[in-house]
Fold:
Amino acid sequence: MRRGGLALALMLAAGPAAADIARPQSLDALLVVLQNAVAATGDATEIRPDPSAHRLFLTWKGTQLVADPHNLFMAMQGAMTDAERQEMLDAYLAAFDDLVALEGGVLDPARLLPILRPSTFAEHLPEARKIAAVPWAAGLSIYLVEDRASSTAYVTPERLKGAGLDGASATKAALANLATHKTRFEPLGTQRWALVLDGTYESSLLLDNELWRRFAEDQGPPIMVVPNRDTVVVDTSGTPEAAADLAAFARAMQQANPYPVSDQVFRWTGQAWAVLSPP
Structure:
């Protein structure tokens, strides 16, 4: 039996819908819908929901997967019709096959991307010790994923080895791939910005030191919070009030988001990010 990565963003072009799905009122409700849909395919065994984490553990055609429907839930909230939501669910299930193919195929270094998460992030996953990770700073680690249009799979050391990579070379490739993504800074007020990418990899951009060197040259030395994967807020006012405000914002955002990163305030040293010491 093979053990797969975590299904993060499963959105394939779907086939014909067999039925329609009403807008789920909660993640708990969607988890029940997903569990029933998975069971109805006949391709899954050992289906075990984890309501506390809103995840579904299952074995799909011999490969253990973890389905995380947070992205599916958010997409369904924006869908206009029940038929659209059914298509999204069909696409989500179809992407399981893609994940299984990823696990059995050769890793493509051009598709590697870094994910910045707490160092405890993988503890709840099957075979957590086999997920490739590199310690970063402030209790955070860099996890490596192979990102495709239909799914995102965490990379294991075994797959790195099969591609002739070790942790250092794979991380270097992932950071180089990340640097090719176009980002923008949206003003939030005087000397404050939100970093915007795609809703998944914003937090990973903390690892792009060249991006921050250019930003500091243009705007001055920043402080920053990254409470969850899609939220990075930067401030260059240099005031104690700004640091306190960002700290309170980070704490509040962490409690409201399913993909937390850190509640600490960071400062740019000129070469890297470091935790801002209390005044």
User: Anything to note?
Assistant: The first helix runs from residue 27 to 41.
